[in-house]
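Our consortium's second objective concerns turning raw sequence data into structural hypotheses that experimental partners can test. To show how far this objective has progressed, the report includes one record in full. It was chosen at random from the queue rather than selected for favorable results. The single chain below, 179 residues long, was entered without modification.
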Amino acid sequence: MAGRTIRDFDVHELFAAMDSQREERGLSWPGVAREIWSMSHELNATRPNDHPISPSTLTGMPRRGVTSCQHALCMLAWLGKAPEVFLDGDGPTRSDARLPACGPDRRLRWSLKRLYGGLDDQRRRNEMTWKQLAGELGCTSNQLTGLRTARYATGIVLAMRITQWLDRPAADFIRAAKW
């Protein structure tokens, strides 16, 4: 793993791609949020307590510079692009970068337990402590160990740093979930 360049997920580029698609299609940001939510309309009908993605979640990304890995999946599905497309800087893009197929009865979700499992297995093979690994990934060890029990999300930037460190496509950790 040493010497591998880990590129950050560029939230601003994701926003720019969404904004371009929004303008091209003549949509407002609430219109984009409705379209994203309607992509899983059959699932939504069975889960009345789920909350749709908010237009402010979308429009606030440039100011915040972050978004959760779960929200990013909704946006990426709307764009039809894999997360690897939005890695910053120069470098190869995985030829196997894609999102899993997902019908209207499902929603794409990161499997944080699977991400944690892959990370922990590789960390052990490399004989690294969580603190050493956190140093390589530019985060805290708690952010990494917390993936084991996380219910909802981590940031997309960290999720993508992890997939690169594992040298695996993000799709290995994403599923089309019925819940």
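The partners drew two points from this record. The longest strand covers residues 107-110. Residues 11-24 form the longest helix (14 residues). Both points have been shared with the crystallography group to help prioritize constructs.
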